[in-house]
Amino acid sequence: MCGIVGYMGPKEAAPILIKGLHRLEYRGYDSAGIALINGNGKLSIYKTKGKVANLEKLLSDKDVSGCVGIAHTRWATHGEPNEANAHPHLSEHNNIALIHNGIIENYKALKEELVSKGYHFYSDTDTEVIVQLIQYIMDTHKISLTEAVPQALANVIGAYAIAIIDKDNPDVMIAARKGSPLIVGIGKDEFFIGSDATPIVEYTDKVVYLEEGQIALMERGKELQVTDLNKINISPVVKKLEISLEEIEKGGFADFMLKEIYEQPQTLRNSMSGRLHPDLGEVRLSGIIDNKEKFLNARRIIICACGTSWHAALIGKYMIEEIARIPVEVEYSSEFRYRNPVIYDDDIVIAISQSGETADTLAALKLARTKGAFLFGICNVVGSSIPRETDSGCYTHAGPEIGVASTKAFTAQVSTLALLALSLAKEKGTIDDATRLRLVAELQRIPDKIEKILKHDRNISMLAPIFTYARNFIYLGRGYNYPVALEGALKLKEISYIHAEGYPAAEMKHGPIALIDEELPVVVIATRKGKYDKIVSNIQEIKSRKGKIISIVTEGDVDVRKISDWSFEIPDTEECFVPLLSTIPLQLLAYHIAVVKGRNVDQPRNLAKSVTVE
User: Fold this and answer.
1) What phi-psi label fits residue 41: left (phi over 0), alpha (psi between -120 and 50 degrees) or beta?
2) CB 182: neighbour CB atoms within 10 A?
3) Residue 57 is a catalytic residue
4) Per annotation, catalytic residue among 2, 304, 379, 576
5) 188 belongs to the catalytic site
6) 239, 298, 368, 550: which one has the fewest Cβ atoms less than 10 Å from its Cβ?
7) For the whole prediction, is pTM greater than 0.85?
8) Per-residue pLDDT tens over the stretch 262-298
9) Pairing mode, if any, of strands 472-477 and 521-526?
């Protein structure tokens, strides 16, 4: 992985491809490269370690003419980040260029076989095996590229999204996917390829989302052709992109992450729009209504997720169990898929993923399907794999999230889980009308309360320089705020590279309290709702050991403010909705500390936005 872009049409390809790579930088990467075929049939490949800007510098005095090309940003899996391992990769005869996202699991066996046949390898990647295998099949069977690609892919085990060009067939571009996302954009006499919509949206709003095991053949002057690995023709479904160019621009903000933090009031309104009906005191989710009997008869709910989505799932567990009285288990997708979990056919498995392409979560879904469970998806990206793998679900409607460290996607997931819990509670009759009316009305007020918190951003930014010295942080919360502590710690370490850990506050006494000294900042979520007196006691324990307290408190709080070194207020709300407010100051704190430390907050090191490999 990480980013794919391709173009074939009447325009010069290089500017489109380079701009596309810039659009894909948010996904995280460590090298970049481009392949172009010019009007004379010459295939040129340029690659470099580092950023797309390095590639642009390399291209400044090179021949970059040509109306067909592919380009790639690589996040290293096999082989270190260097020029040799960067994509594109060439075939034995230097005529075919290929780029690839994913992991080829049987590459060693394939490579050994190809080496024994006299084929040479110049990188440490698994990707190079694919292009050499295609070349071998063409050479052995004397067939065309379009015939060789499905045969080659039938011998590949693993995940892939690939794009291929051939200097002997300059009017043809091929793309294929299995386990990694890939879309084809259709313009006027031109085609685009992207690992997501960001490099395409500027040029066309007509796209085809390739399904598992599909191959797209783009030929100049002809309609898009799609087949499966058995060469059976498939009628492509052309869809309209639902994002705009403005949504993937910074809009005057210094960073995408800050923009997305500030977008949260609106993204939550979008998430609740058409679903929340405060005048009736109701939540209407079609995914629940259409599958009412499945949910009413569910033995339990299992939520599978990774990273930030796993933290949202924990909050969802608390909400669903408290409000709808259905037992919920929260699983790391990466662990769930590799053990032998007990799954009943009356279980509901919910998958949560911002991208809808998270490899481990998709694998968890497929495992649950074999056990007969009902599958429900919660994700942000329309047309992604999880909505296609599940029986039903909800989109979060957060809009494109470019910053690698998730912010608005997290709160949109939590709000969607709140809607789900309230909808289930209504169907099951587990809360009285007065409580339901109160909760629905309060949920509608949450976006306005977030706007109020954001007005105090400057106070948080002024605090950030104090903590540039810190090498460790601890985050504490109880009940609904324990997952918020986990998420706050994750945000800090993701973008500032400061080690941080989240704990249930009461667990401090069971080991972590040994870390407390006068240099350790401790962030405590100490809002009035919940076990307030208990958490005050936890703070006292830290203070008595000279720990530095940063507290998140409810407006008007006096007691915690007195014993804290620094405090940030949030508006009062229902206990189950506190995470939607308490997470905002933690996002801002992480952001400002990272900025002061000179970090690239949108593209933190070693991270990728969409984790499409194990």
Assistant:
1) left
2) 26
3) no
4) 2
5) no
6) 239
7) no
8) 999 999 999 999 899 888 888 989 889 899 999 999 9
9) parallel
